[in-house]
From TrEMBL, chain A:
Family: Belongs to the binding-protein-dependent transport system permease family.
Location relative to the cell: Cell membrane
Signal peptide range in chain numbering: none
Name used for this protein in its record: Carbohydrate ABC transporter membrane protein 1, CUT1 family
Pfam families: BPD_transp_1
Domain ABC transmembrane type-1 residue range list: 88-301
Lineage of source species: Bacteria, Pseudomonadati, Pseudomonadota, Alphaproteobacteria, Acetobacterales
Key words, A-Z: Cell membrane, Membrane, Transmembrane, Transmembrane helix, Transport
Organism encoding this protein: Belnapia rosea
Automatic annotation (TrEMBL), chain B:
Locations listed in the record: Periplasm
Name of this protein: Carbohydrate ABC transporter substrate-binding protein, CUT1 family
Record key words, sorted: Signal
Any single Gene Ontology cellular-component annotation: periplasmic space
Gene3D superfamilies tied to this protein: Periplasmic binding protein-like II
This protein's record includes keyword S-adenosyl-L-methionine: no
Range of residues in the leader sequence: 1-31
Transmembrane domains' residue ranges: none
InterPro entries on file: Bact_solute-bd_prot1, SBP, TAT_signal
Pfam families membership: SBP_bac_8
Length: 313, 453
């Protein structure tokens, strides 16, 4: 009995020890700890990115009343619409135009700042960053007052110099120019600060070596600075492209997509169709159109970065 | 000892007594101040005193009925109220009552409680309800909301009578006096007369301030213009009526001619631009509720005292008045629907409507024709009587209108938000399309809207 009793009592104990050991080993594994530590972030991304994205995809397959699944019907309908094709082109013009301008202005500003003595540089850096730190909905309102159809302060100044008033928001090409201009004003400081950081990481010895070899300033820029900054430029352009494509507030505040939808971009059109017109599934389909367009851009930019990294290795 | 002394019959008797006391006591609990609770989201009124008037009425009702009411005022800047409605309809949680923008009643009809009982009692008391309010709030034979007074507006013409007299030779105060009768020349107040006056005032440097963009002020006045020409784009069955539609073509051609007399930037005007045009003294006429005049009264009194509100001009198919109503809806997932109905019925009473309208200087328009005689519209000034003709009076011989009616609500909402009526004019007047090209574009847009159910 005693032996039996020991056996009966001993068996679960050893099983429990075995389980504990397994659990302990599992808990001590680096990957487990890493997973547990990353879990809050994963939950956050799951809740705020994956779930809404999945929900938007599901929504886009429904009919207007959300009572039946129509597959890719909403996408098909959109592609048959003149207005939506216009929105695609405008989104591309807006995003590509604004990103190119921001990259060039940011690059120029970064160079100017880089050559200012360290003492005064901080002051200029702070001032040039101001547009980027003001909430865009607020600063766009300021711009809207300056562009106001009837009481534009810019036109008032132009009139002083006998220049005729410009219909900033009423004429299609001026309206497109205005929304791009505000986006460039807002986004250039981001490029500037990224490029400035990249410039500061270029070793001075490279410039010295180039100078000894007789390189001009332009050649230094072309053969030293740009190759050293290439990856930062690519990453910054990609990031800005994504943000600019998804931009909503500038168009919404400045032109509301007008005149005649000629400044409408994906986000503003999705809001108009989805929320204001009460057609949530079609609005979701509009916003999902950004995904393939951005995927194409991201593919080419990231491929370039990977290729350069391989060459350097 | 006490237990020991209790008999079985005594215990049963006591139990029955406790139960009866409980049942009889329930209404008393209500009477003691637990008539339930309500969460209400109303539109945040433009007129600063509008919210106070609403708050006073709701407080009066809640105290009388011992209901705890949480009142939120949500503004429409950045479409916050519309976004709240969309989020609450999707999540099936939120307020019990919510103010709904004109087309949102139809959009959320499936999650709104039918309120036919409330409406029928109000109609029995006050007569027929505004047909536009009915078109917007009735879905599949049931009322899905109670047309509200607060925030509901007409958009008649607010005219600078001095400029109109001087440059167009029209005495609008004599034509439309502050009395129940039209004056001499009122029958000549047509869109043709209007165009002539617009040309003359435009030449004199005081163009009419008529927005032609995608905001509601633009869509509304163009909607009333099209209605007075009988120009509809879609019938009540959802069939586009663009092709071979001479009335639509005539209305577009007229609007293109009229647009030539307007400032060249009206295509970018928002709902505040026409107000600014009037208040600054640069414009002889706008289509607007009295808010523009009210701001002028505060900021530019010399302009306000020369303003006079008159009906919109008449066209071949009659006179129409742009009307933009708010509706109060009760979510069908709410907890206290009967109490919510009682509150909305109280707010629909004549006394409540008059209190709201009076506190907003006459801005709010009740949904019943029998309520167009409030004293405030006679006494408000300067000049006294300036908003007398703001509500639709019988002698105006006009009908209320909303753009794109009689198209089914779900399609009309999309046409309205996408401002198809102003865009079709802009394609010709600004974009250089022929009328045929613009109509072709319009038909394709309508087909896109109808597709997908």
């Amino acid at each position: 009995m005693a032996a039996d009793g020991t056996l009966v009592a001993g068996a679960p104990a050893s099983a429990a020890n075995g389980r504990a050991n397994t659990m302990q080993r599992f808990a001590r594994r680096r990957s487990t700890i890493a997973f547990l530590m990353a879990l809050p972030l994963i939950a956050l991304i799951g809740g705020l990115v994956v779930y809404p994205a999945g929900y938007a995809m599901w929504l886009s397959t429904l009919n207007r009343r959300m009572t039946a699944n129509i597959g890719l019907g909403n996408f098909e309908i959109l592609l048959d619409s003149d207005t939506f094709w216009m929105v695609i082109w405008q989104s591309c013009i807006f995003a590509v135009g604004a990103v190119i301008a921001k990259a060039l202005i940011g690059f120029w500003l970064a160079h100017m700042l880089h050559h200012i003595p360290a003492k005064g540089q901080r002051k200029w850096r702070g001032m040039l960053l101001i547009p980027w730190v003001i909430p865009p909905a607020l600063s766009t309102l300021g711009w809207w007052w300056m562009f106001d159809p009837s009481y534009s302060s810019i036109n008032w100044i132009l009139n002083i110099f006998a220049v005729p008033a410009v219909p900033w928001l009423g004429e299609p090409w001026w309206a497109r120019f205005s929304v791009i201009l505000v986006n460039v004003w807002y986004g250039s400081p981001f490029f500037m600060i990224m490029y400035l950081a990249a410039l500061k990481s270029v070793p001075d010895q490279l410039y010295e070596a180039a100078a000894i070899d007789g390189a001009t300033g332009w050649q230094g820029l072309r053969y030293v600075t740009l190759p050293m900054m290439q990856n930062i430029i690519s990453i910054t352009v990609l990031f800005s492209l994504i943000v600019t494509f998804a931009n909503y507030d500038i168009v919404r505040v400045l032109t509301n997509g007008g005149p005649r939808d000629l400044t409408q971009v994906f986000a503003s059109y999705a809001f108009q169709v989805g929320i204001l017109s009460g057609n949530l599934p079609r609005g979701a389909a509009v916003s999902l159109f950004m995904f393939p367009v951005l995927a194409v851009f991201a593919f080419f930019i990231l491929r370039g970065i990977n290729r350069r990294n391989r060459e350097q290795m | 000892m006490v237990v020991k002394g209790m008999t079985r019959r005594g215990a049963l008797r006591s139990g029955a007594g406790v139960m009866a006391a409980g049942l009889l006591g329930a209404p008393m609990v209500h009477a003691q101040g637990t008539g339930g609770s309500l969460r209400v989201a109303f539109w945040d009124h433009w007129v600063p005193t509008g919210n106070d008037a609403m708050r006073a009425l709701v407080t009066e009702w809640s105290q009388k009925n011992r209901v705890e009411v949480t009142l939120d005022f949500i503004n429409t800047t950045g479409n916050q109220l519309q976004l709240a409605g969309a989020a609450q309809a999707q999540s099936k949680s939120g307020h019990d009552i919510i103010s709904l923008a004109p087309w949102d009643v139809g959009t959320y009809a499936s999650v709104l409680e039918p309120v036919d009982d409330v409406i029928n009692r109000l109609i029995a008391k006050y007569g027929p309800i505004n047909p536009v309010a009915e078109y917007l709030a009735k879905r599949e034979g049931a009322w899905r909301g109670v047309p509200a007074t607060s925030g509901t507006q007409n958009k008649p013409a607010c005219v600078r009578f001095d400029l109109m007299q001087e440059h167009a030779g029209l005495d609008v105060r004599a034509m439309w006096p502050a009395s129940g009768q039209p004056g001499p020349g009122a029958d000549q107040w047509t869109w043709d007369t209007f165009l002539t006056a617009a040309e003359k005032c435009g030449k004199a440097g005081f163009p009419f301030g008529l927005p032609m963009g995608a905001f509601s002020d633009a869509v509304d006045w163009v909607g009333a213009l099209f209605a007075s020409y009988g120009a509809s784009m879609m019938d009540e069955k959802g069939k586009p009526t663009v092709r071979n539609n001479p009335k639509l073509r005539t209305a577009i051609e007229y609007a293109v001619r009229l647009s030539k007399t307007l400032p060249n930037d009206v295509w970018a005007w928002d709902d505040a631009s026409n107000n600014r045009a009037l208040i600054s003294g640069k414009s002889a006429l706008v289509f607007n509720p009295p808010s523009a005049w009210a701001v002028a009264k505060r900021d530019q009194p010399q302009v306000a005292e020369k303003c006079w509100t008159i009906p919109m001009p008449a066209g071949p198919e009659g006179r129409f008045l742009a009307y933009l109503p708010w509706t109060s809806g009760i979510w069908n997932f709410g907890r206290n629907k009967q109490t919510a109905k009682a509150l909305l019925e109280f707010l629909g009473e004549r006394s409540s409507a008059e209190a709201l309208t009076s506190k907003t200087s006459g801005y709010d328009i009740p949904p019943f024709e029998t309520m167009t005689d409030f004293k405030i519209w006679e006494t408000e000034g300067p000049p006294v009587g300036t908003v007398y003709n703001y509500p639709l009076k019988p002698h105006h011989k006009a009908k209320p209108s909303i753009a794109f009616a009689p198209a089914p609500g779900e399609f009309a909402a999309q046409m309205y938000v996408q401002a198809l009526n102003t865009k079709v004019i802009a394609r010709v007047a600004q974009g250089g399309d022929t009328v045929d090209q613009a109509l072709g574009w319009l038909e394709r847009e309508l087909t896109t809207i109808v597709r997908g159910g």
